[in-house]
Amino acid sequence: MLQMIVCDWNGTLFRDRLEETFFFGLCRRAFWRAALRGRVGKVGRLIGRGVRCYLAYRAARKDPQRTLEHIARIVGLLNPVVFAGLGREELDAYARAYTRKIQPLLDRRLLDPLARIAATTEIPVGVISAGCRRGIEVALAEAGLRPDFVIANEFRFDGEVTAGFDFSVGENKRELLADLLSRRGIDPADVMYVGDSPQDEPCFDLVGLPVVSFFADPADRARLARKHGAFAPTDQAAFEAHVRQAAAPA
To answer: Containing domain of residue 196, as a range?
Structure first.
């Protein structure tokens, strides 16, 4: 019987696969702020790092097997010039504006059934993602789903100001999921994991109820369904029926 539902974020609940909307928005803010204040040196550093980040972003799009490696490189480039020095209130305001903007990019075919399951059962629904925890939590709340947990990367603070962005969730998602299940005393066989890409395969292998998202690349969708026995729903009704069936008492 189903005991927990765990979802990936990028490419699963949210169409963006690399969190580019969130981070590029922060980069634009940093550039225009430096330009308007006449900080020529800062503008130059932002342009230089922006070019290198764009090249890493292109590489990540072309090489899915090394996506997380390229993202870690982008975070390292942006930490000193974009992600450090943001006020807590400023970051919270940006996250709220960002989540309102991206609502059309969320997949209601998954979110609406998950919200109903969360509201009508005691089955915990949560997210494990290499994305940004702050953005994920606010976006899901705006969409009507308050997750039981979100395990993701997050900004670190020095008092009320950011000191950078910690990229600590990525290739270790299986280990984080296994630890979560162990702490809660849940058998992996009773867990549904919804994902979209090769990065999710270790989690597919761990759980008893793997599901491939609607946003998955068609070739990946077919391969993941075949290789891992993952359910690939054709529409929202099929997904909700699958969840309800798994949650029904034996």
So the answer is: 4-247
